[in-house]
């Protein structure tokens, strides 16, 4: 017997919280299908939670066909969500942690210190990649991570560098005269390459520097010995808050999945609960 599972997935980051309502048709027949996104909203970490909007999105789904799940890199933000949780009609949230029962092999020196978002991305990548194909995942947020999933489906590490917002803030905070450039400025138009004044020069450095770093890391990982025995090139995925800025410049390389982390969170919640 088939039915639809509706999930409210919440990713609590350092500067923003993302809320997504997804649905999955159970039992899952297509192993390459991610949970489908119905609604999504992102808000700064210090703004009030839009509970009324979330209730409306969740609708009148039977309780046994519903699930709420929360994870993220900001423990205080998660406590804020859980402590403020309404009694009804949203089901009490399952908190996903990087613990021993996490459904992913984590092949690094200190597995429990890996950020949960990076692992959720890897879980989603394992749903999308072919057998014996590895994956490279670019996630652009406060920090940008470029991570690798082996051909066996193990998370094996990657690289971490400052994202757009952190880079802009660092230039402002650690110099005497450079202004703070909001990330929203980069969304208005593609930054010029040759900046003819200070603000345009910073915009150029932030945008093209980030793009160049990501391209180089992808290139380095594609040529890593980890993938030498595979006949298939690794799947390359692009996600995260800054991904829409970069997608058109990387479309020759990547598959754009802007909500990959939350889809991975939904998959993990299903597996932990024995639903999937």
Automatic annotation (TrEMBL):
Annotated family: Belongs to the type III pantothenate kinase family.
Enzyme class: transferase
Positions that bind ATP: 11-18, 142
Coiled coil segments of this chain: none
UniProt: K(+) binding residues: 139
Function, as annotated: Catalyzes the phosphorylation of pantothenate (Pan), the first step in CoA biosynthesis.
Main location: cytoplasm
Keywords: ATP-binding, Coenzyme A biosynthesis, Cytoplasm, Kinase, Metal-binding, Nucleotide-binding, Potassium, Transferase
Subunit and partners: Homodimer.
Gene Ontology MF annotations: ATP binding; metal ion binding; pantothenate kinase activity
UniProt-annotated location(s): Cytoplasm
This protein's encoding gene: coaX
Gene3D superfamilies, sorted: 3.30.420.40
Gene Ontology cellular component annotations, sorted alphabetically: cytoplasm
Residues where substrate binds: 115-118, 198
Pathway in which this enzyme or protein is active: Cofactor biosynthesis; coenzyme A biosynthesis; CoA from (R)-pantothenate: step 1/5
The name this protein goes by in its record: Type III pantothenate kinase
GO BP annotations listed: coenzyme A biosynthetic process
Cofactor: binding details: A monovalent cation. Ammonium or potassium.
Catalytic activities: (R)-pantothenate + ATP = (R)-4'-phosphopantothenate + ADP + H(+)
EC number: 2.7.1.33
Entry-linked InterPro entries: ATPase_NBD (IPR043129), Type_III_PanK (IPR004619)
Residues at the catalytic site: 117
Cofactor(s) needed for function: NH4(+); K(+)
């Amino acid at each position: 017997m088939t039915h639809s599972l509706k999930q409210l997935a919440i990713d609590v980051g350092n500067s923003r919280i993302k809320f997504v309502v997804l649905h999955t048709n159970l039992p899952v027949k297509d192993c390459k299908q991610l949970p489908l996104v119905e609604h999504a909203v992102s808000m700064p970490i210090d703004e009030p939670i839009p509970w009324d909007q979330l209730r409306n999105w969740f609708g009148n789904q039977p309780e046994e066909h519903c699930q709420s799940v929360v994870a993220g890199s900001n423990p205080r933000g998660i406590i804020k969500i859980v402590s403020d949780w309404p009694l009804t009609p949203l089901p009490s949230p399952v908190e996903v942690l990087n613990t021993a029962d996490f459904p992913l092999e984590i092949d690094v020196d200190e597995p429990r210190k890996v950020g949960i978002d990076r692992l959720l991305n890897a879980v989603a990548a394992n749903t999308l990649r072919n057998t014996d194909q590895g994956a490279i995942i670019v996630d652009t947020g406060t920090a940008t991570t470029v991570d690798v999933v082996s051909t066996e489906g193990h998370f094996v590490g990657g690289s971490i560098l400052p994202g757009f917002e952190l880079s802009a803030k660092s230039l402002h905070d650690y110099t005497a005269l450079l202004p703070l450039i909001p990330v929203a400025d980069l969304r208005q138009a593609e930054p010029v390459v040759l900046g003819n004044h200070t603000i345009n020069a910073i915009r150029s450095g932030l945008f093209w520097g980030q793009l160049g770093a990501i391209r180089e890391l992808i290139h380095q990982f594609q040529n890593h010995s980890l993938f030498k025995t595979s006949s298939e090139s690794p799947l390359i995925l692009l996600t995260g808050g800054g991904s829409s800025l970069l997608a058109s410049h990387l479309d020759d390389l990547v598959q754009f999945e802007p909500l990959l982390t939350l889809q991975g969170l939904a998959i993990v919640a299903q597996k932990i609960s024995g639903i999937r």
